[in-house]
Amino acid sequence: MACTRCMKVQPPGRNCQRCAAPLHAREPNSLQRVWAWLAAGILLYIPANTYPMLRTSTLGSTSDSTIVGGVIELVHYGSYGVAFIVFFASIVIPVLKFVAIAYLALSLKRGVETTTHQRLILFEVVEFIGRWSMIDVFVVAILSALVQLDFVASVNPGPAAACFALSVAFTMLSAQSFDPRLIWDVAKKERT
Amino acid sequence: MTDGPAELEVSDRRPPIWARVSVVWFIPLFALVISLFVAWQNYTNRGVLVSISFEDAAGIDAGKTVVKFRDVDIGLVESVGFSADLNSVTVKARVDQNVAPYLDADAIFWVARPRVTTRGISEIDTLVSGVYIEGSWDNRAGEARTEFAGMETPPLVRVGADGTFIQLRAPDAGSLAAGAPILYKGIEVGQIEDLQLADGGDHVIVDAFVEAPHNTRLTNATRFWNLSGFSLSFGAGGVELDVDSLASLVEGGIGFATVYSGGTPIRDGHVFELFEGEAEARESIFNRRIASELRLSIAFDGSVKGLVAGAPVTYRGVAVGEVENLTATVVEDADGQLSDVQLLTNIIISPGKLGLPDTATRSDTLDFLEASVAGGLRARIASANILTGSLLVELVERPDETLATFDRDAEPFPLLPTSASAVEDFAATAEGLFERVNALPVEELMTSTVSLMNSLDRLASDEAAQGTPEAIVSLLDDTRALINSENVQAVPADLRATIASINTMLDEINTGGAVANLLAALEETRAVAEDINKATDTLPELVTKLDSLAQKAIDLPLEGFIADTRGLVTSADELIGSDAVKAVPETVAALMTDTRALINSEALRAAPGELQAALARINTILAEFERSGSVAGLASAIGDAQKAAANVSTASEALPKLVSDVEELAAKAADLPLDELVTSTRGLIETANGLLASEDVRALPGSLGAALDEIQNILAALEEGGAVTNLNSALSSAATASDAVATAVKDLPALAERLNRLAAQAGATLSAYNADSDFNYQTRAALREIAEAAEAVSSLSRAIERRPNSLLIGR
Question: What is the pTM of this model?
Answer without folding.
Answer: 0.40
